[in-house]
Design goal:
Order of helices and strands: EEHEEHEHHEHE
Low-confidence stretches: none
Distance between the termini: 22 Å
Strand order of the largest sheet: 2-6-5-4
Largest sheet: 4 strands, mixed
Strand content: 15-25%
Structural class: alpha+beta
Radius of gyration: 16 Å
Number of strands: 7
Mean pLDDT: 91
Shape: globular
Length: 156
């Protein structure tokens, strides 16, 4: 399958080391299958007057050979997992996490939840109307090295 990663640089050899901490699914290399989502995300670099690159990869992996966590919806398990990852309390050892991205609408609800303005039930009630986009967070350098093949980088 083809995956995309937006960045301020061309990345032909991705690694986990340069990833930021405290993101949705923890420290890892984030990608999506959705071309338009990746291009839209790249616009944040342009707004900051930085270069914007769309990096394209081929991803071939057997999910039965790796520790995979997949979220199919914005549910309590997804909310609890993101909450732990965002404060650095994730103690799982998944090689890859797949699920909904916290886009602009979702992030507003999450911020209200993290600030204590909404209960988890209220936040999930608002999120049930949102259709999840997708993100893949590869958290294992071994999985990156063995399963992600660089295709090209395009400056936007």
């Amino acid at each position: 399958m083809k995956l995309y990663h937006s960045s301020n640089a061309a990345i032909n050899c991705p690694d986990i080391v340069h990833s930021r901490d405290y993101l949705d699914f923890g420290k890892g290399f984030y990608l999506t299958t959705l071309y338009d989502q990746a291009v839209k995300y790249a616009q944040r670099f342009i707004r900051r007057q930085q270069n914007a690159w769309l990096n394209t990869y081929e991803f071939n992996f057997n999910p039965h050979e790796w520790k995979v966590r997949k979220f199919d919806s914005y549910d309590k398990e997804w909310l609890d997992f993101i909450s732990k990852c965002r404060v650095g309390e994730d103690d799982t050892d998944y090689d890859i996490v797949i699920g909904g991205i916290a886009n602009d609408k979702v992030i507003q609800t999450l911020d209200r939840y993290f600030e204590g303005e909404l209960t988890s039930e209220q936040a999930l009630g608002l999120l049930r109307y949102e259709k999840p986009n997708n993100q893949f967070c590869i958290r294992s350098q071994k999985l990156l090295d063995e399963c992600l093949i660089y295709i090209e980088s395009q400056q936007l």
